[in-house]
From TrEMBL:
The gene is purF. It comes from Iodidimonas nitroreducens. [4Fe-4S] cluster binds at C240, C386, C443, C446. One of its GO terms (biological process) is purine nucleobase biosynthetic process. In the C-terminal section; belongs to the purine/pyrimidine phosphoribosyltransferase family. Catalyzes the formation of phosphoribosylamine from phosphoribosylpyrophosphate (PRPP) and glutamine. GO terms for molecular function: 4 iron, 4 sulfur cluster binding; amidophosphoribosyltransferase activity; magnesium ion binding. Its cofactor is [4Fe-4S] cluster; Mg(2+). Its EC number is 2.4.2.14. It catalyses: 5-phospho-beta-D-ribosylamine + L-glutamate + diphosphate = 5-phospho-alpha-D-ribose 1-diphosphate + L-glutamine + H2O. CDD domains: GPATase_N, PRTases_typeI. PROSITE patterns: GATASE_TYPE_2 (PS51278). Residues 1-220 form the Glutamine amidotransferase type-2 domain. It holds the Pfam family Pribosyltran. This is Amidophosphoribosyltransferase.
Length: 472
């Protein structure tokens, strides 16, 4: 789910929405902003894209204040109704509390059941709301202590920005599964999921928020201070490797690495691991482009844009229903027949999830006259669902969970199919020894099934819990 952005800006030209606009690729269902002027909190939440909803001056003028947090949502938990649009807000004993959450909690339903038993009244079906109730019901006195108390109870992946009258809090879970970075524009500090949101504001990158770190930004202008605390026992970080494969924008810096460079190196690894005699390397745009550049450079086979993408269609995968997804992929890509006809084609894409995209693209390339079609995938087979905020479907819908590679090849109608190895992927992330299987350096659960946290809600009978708390 969701990506966040937070901004403290002194003289209010209010560039609200611009940072969120740069993070639109991370969630397209809904967007929201909460601003604080020192006394009042004001929120605007809308279904749909940032550019369609947060450009009206009238709306922006309602968001008065010197600090704000925002959010773009794509639902991995809780569904896409208005009541789940973030930032979530509550008036607590300690004052207003607005929260934007990137990630997914793996014990949210379990906690929710306990909280409801003790009288909490939930407003949404979002996993993120448990954070508010845990803070509200904590018996500690100060907001800091209540927050830490709450964080100690949650499991899973969370990068959070929280706007309160005591300042802005930014934090990452102890494994640092989801990203969060800090930047600066003049005297103002900015927290956001990806550095591309800093670029659009003309802000400079300062650093990542570390796994398990909480930063508290308070004061205004040149008096602004940043305090850092680390209340958890240190653990080996497990940032999500899928950020490099697919999720982050290629112009972002993630885990200190250029996403674009990592993707090119994955392509080069793939060319070394799975070479094939062919005439042309063609990316599945946009997500396959950097890896295809790397594959072409390593193999010496020419790179061509043999598939053209219609840029007025959003990411297919992110549209929730299967029907829209099927329609979406046809609207999105077209074969550039003059680069394909009579050729042996290597197609490069970042991943295969359900196999819908690959099947359609391979057929399209064949219909455009390709002699052979070889599919190369810049990640290992996605065999397991993600419970940490990347929207993969249930396991039974993952092509690689249902079939071996030969069967997948036949299913997508390709002449050959190969995936980069997990070690190849780690090499591309500048880990020459590959994956340390005793102490993996990333969360790669979608490929390995090695989940770095408890999956409490999966272990319990989640359906039964859902039946208890979700109105029909
Ligand atoms: P599928 O058609 O279901 O096999 O999905 C694969 C396509 O969706 C690839 O071309 C990826 O670029 C893209 N994709 C992979 N994972 C995700 C994700 N978690 N969210 C959105 N798109 C994705």
């Amino acid at each position: 789910m969701r990506r966040l952005w937070d901004h403290r800006h002194r003289r209010c030209r209010r560039p609200y929405g611009i940072g969120l606009h740069a993070l639109q690729h991370r969630g397209q269902e809904a967007a929201g902003i909460t601003a604080f002027d020192g006394t009042h909190f004001v929120s605007q939440r809308q279904l749909g894209h940032v550019a369609d909803n947060f450009t009206s001056q009238k709306l922006i003028d309602t968001l008065k204040g010197h600090s704000a947090i925002g959010h773009v949502r794509y639902s991995t938990a809780g569904g896409s109704s208005m009541r789940n649009v973030q930032p979530l807000f509550a008036d607590l004993a300690t004052g207003g509390f607005a929260v934007s959450h990137n990630g997914n909690l793996t014990n949210a339903w379990h906690l929710r059941r306990q909280l409801v038993r003790h009288g909490s009244i939930f407003q949404s079906t979002s996993d993120s709301e448990v954070i508010i109730h845990l803070v509200a019901t904590s018996t500690y006195r100060s907001l800091y202590d209540k927050l830490i108390d709450a964080l100690r109870k949650i499991e899973g992946a969370y990068s959070l920005v929280i706007l309160t009258r005591d300042g802005l809090f930014g934090m990452r879970d102890p494994l640092g599964v989801r990203p969060l970075v800090m930047g600066k524009l003049g005297d103002s500090h900015i927290l956001c999921s990806e550095t591309c949101a800093l670029d659009i504001l003309g802000a400079h990158y300062v650093r990542e928020i570390e796994p398990g770190e909480i930063v508290i930004i308070s004061g205004e202008g040149s008096g602004q201070t940043v305090k850092s605390i680390k209340p958890f026992a240190p653990q080996n970080p497990r940032p999500c490797i899928f950020e490099h494969v697919y999720f982050s924008r290629p112009d972002s810096l993630v885990d200190g690495l250029s996403v674009y460079d990592v993707r090119k190196r994955i392509g080069a690894e793939l060319a070394r691991e799975a070479p094939v005699d062919a005439d042309v390397v063609i990316p599945v745009p946009d997500s396959g482009v950097p890896a295809a550049i790397g594959y072409a450079a390593q193999s010496g086979i020419p790179f061509e844009l043999g598939i053209i993408r219609n840029h007025y269609v959003g990411r297919t995968f992110i549209e929730p229903s299967d029907h829209i997804r099927h329609l979406g992929v046809r609207l999105k890509h077209n074969a550039n027949r003059w680069q394909i006809e009579g050729k042996r084609v290597i197609l490069v894409d970042d991943s295969i999830v359900r196999g819908t995209t690959s099947l359609k693209i391979v057929d399209m390339v064949r219909q455009a006259g390709a002699r052979e079609v070889h599919m190369r995938i810049a990640s290992p087979p996605t065999r397991h669902s993600c419970f940490y905020g990347v929207d993969t479907p249930e396991r039974s819908k993952l092509l690689a969970a249902r079939m071996d590679i030969d069967a997948m090849r036949d299913y997508i109608h390709a002449d050959s199919l190969a995936f980069v190895s997990i070690d190849g992927l780690y090499h591309a992330c500048l880990l020459p020894e590959g994956r340390n299987n005793q102490q993996p350096q990333y969360c790669d659960a979608c490929f390995s099934g090695d989940y770095p946290t408890h999956l409490t809600d999966q272990e319990n009978d989640r359906d039964q819990e859902l039946a208890l708390f979700v109105a029909p």
